[in-house]
Specification:
The chain is mostly helical and about 100 residues long. It has one domain. The protein has five helices and no strands.
């Protein structure tokens, strides 16, 4: 029986840090999303260029633990939408799914 392998993207946080994006605790990868989303787009593109067939939005750290309760209440939805837009930038062009 032939098995189908799907290649997922890699660690967004590690790549953001490696590329020099704004990155610190407690915000973690949400900081790059809010201050420099162009880095998030670059990381998505690098994963696609490396062969990823599915990319994941950079929304992992958009939670009260990382961005705080008040900021979560005020900014979670706009940040989640921005994470989707960043992911879709290359996913749509390359015709790959975004999760």
């Amino acid at each position: 029986m032939a098995e189908k392998v799907t290649i997922l993207d890699g660690g967004m946080g590690r790549e953001l840090l490696r590329m020099g994006a704004p990155f610190r605790q407690p915000e973690w990868s949400a900081l790059a999303l809010s201050e420099a989303p162009e880095y998030v787009v670059r990381v998505h593109r690098s994963f696609i260029d490396a062969g990823a067939q599915v990319i994941t939005t950079n929304s992992y750290a958009i939670v009260p633990f990382h961005i705080g309760e008040e900021r979560f209440a005020d900014e979670a939805l706009p940040l989640a939408r921005l994470a989707e837009l960043c992911g879709n930038r290359w996913a749509d062009a390359c015709e790959i799914p975004i999760a």
